[in-house]
Amino acid sequence: MIDLVFETERLLVRRWRDSDLPYLLSVYGDEDAMKWVGDGKPLNETECAEWLNVTNRNYTNYGYGMFAVELKYESGVIGFCGIVHPGEQEEAECKYAYLRRFWGQGFASEALVGLIGYGVTRLELL
Questions:
Q1: Which of 17, 41, 46, 96 is the most exposed, fewest CB within 10 Å of its CB?
Q2: What is the residue-wise DSSP string for 88-116?
Q3: CATH topology for 4-121?
Q4: Any idea which of 52-56, 71-75, 88-92 has the lowest mean pLDDT?
Q5: Helical ranges in the chain per DSSP H
Q6: Are 109 and 115 in contact (CB under 8 A)?
């Protein structure tokens, strides 16, 4: 996988693709899930498409951004994690959001450990 960023025991974490738009909408369009993200409001398809554009700009500007998370043993995106600069703040922070059916299985924690390792070792973010 050419756009692979890192992998963990159970997960593949890769750059976003335009074809991820339906997955973005499934995660960020979920009203219950979005209670815990950003301003707490779900995103519509147009807003998700813009989020793809923002992420592509982040890849260009920073070399990183949000990433898609997939299971190694099953096709399809289960959620997203990444390193971002909300409001163009100087310090980077980790963010994540997953399809609700994958909550409570340790995927977010597993991906965050890999993400922090990637940020420190590969990107030299401290």
A1: 46
A2: G-SS-EEEEEE-GGGTTSSHHHHHHHHHH
A3: Aminopeptidase (3.40.630)
A4: 88-92
A5: 21-28, 31-34, 45-62, 107-121
A6: no
